[in-house]
Target: Protein-methionine-sulfoxide reductase catalytic subunit MsrP
Amino acid sequence: MLYLKDRGHVHPLASEITPREVWRQRRTLIQGLAAGAATAAMPALAATTRPGKRDALPGARSAVPGAATMEAPTAYADVTSYNNFYEFGTDKADPAQRAQGLQTRPWTVVVDGLVKKPGRWDLDALLKLAPMEERVYRLRCVEGWSMVIPWVGYSLSELIRRVEPLGSARYVQFETLGDAKQMPGLRSNIIPWPYVEGLRMDEAMHPLALLAFGLYGEVLPPQNGAPLRLVVPWKYGFKSAKSLVAIRFVEQQPRSAWQRTAPQEYGFYANVNPTVDHPRWSQATERRIGDGLFAKRRPTQMFNGYEPQVGQLYAGLDLKTNY
Ligand SMILES: Nc1nc2c(c(=O)[nH]1)N[C@H]1C(S)=C(S)[C@@H](COP(=O)(O)O)O[C@H]1N2
Ligand SMILES: [Mo]
Model:
């Protein structure tokens, strides 16, 4: 088999993409190999099929607990064609159709606020900041559908540690690109632009909170939030802000764009919770994209199934009022 060398990782050529059917077998094999001491020096390759549509961005198998569900990933075609990215329109097909021209280089992310080391981070510096890992996460949208997506990135905590937050920093605010020249959706004022989200500091430091640069072993397609986005798997999808341009450390709880739009429907916590209904619909079940329109809906799990990992972050918090 031929390999390309790229930033210290080794990955197969696009022409040698593994058929979907053998994905699980190969994954088992790689896990077996990784367990052997002889291969310990080489990071185990993530075992997801590479679609060969964009530049390769391989990630090693993650050791973070909960980062590798054995559920089969949602088809790449579905992950990249059924999207919420209101900056490009509110129809699920709009982002894939309208975001292809998004300029993702040069790209800088401002990191400031209550930190010892504020600064501007170039995308290339961020790409080199920590080893890339593959994290296969469930993503559950507040609208009642879900996907399983093999992301590539590293824990947000890697960046947070390097900028040394002050003791007064209690929350992290995320701001995303709001460029009317590139984003036709900004003509509508459905939400106040730019798209803003926030996390409590301990949520942001949790190893499952991911700074994602890719999916399916390749750089993020624009419609999925290129060149980098947040992915918080235990919260409704709207927390996972796309195309980040600023990360601010603040004392007060940030007000997210969705809270400003409809506070009674989209709370700050946004934890997936099947026992708390959305004011307009039940959150008890979800439709897994790819299951087919006539398939039975699946029961939604508390914290999207990540309760063993994140449940303790919310001990003692009333999850009905803090939705
Ligand atoms: N900047 C920005 N980020 C965003 C959104 C958006 O409209 N704008 N939509 C959110 C919602 S509601 C969901 S469900 C997820 C969808 O991510 P995906 O299209 O990659 O599956 O992105 C989230 N991040
Ligand atoms: Mo969503």
Confidence is low (pLDDT under 50) at residues 1-42. The radius of gyration is 19 Å.
